[in-house]
Amino acid sequence: MISGSFNLDGDMILAETIGRLGIDLGALVAATGIWANPDVFKLLKIENTFGVWYQNVRRAAQKRGEKKGEEINGVRMDDNTYANFAIEGAIGKVRQTSNVEVCHIWPRSTYDERYHTCIANLVLLPRSVAGLSDKHPPVVAALQHRAFVLYGWYPADIGGVPVRPPEKPPSYPTKWRDPEAMTPAIEQAIGRRKPR
Question: Which range of residues forms the domain containing residue 73?
Answer without folding.
Answer: 24-192
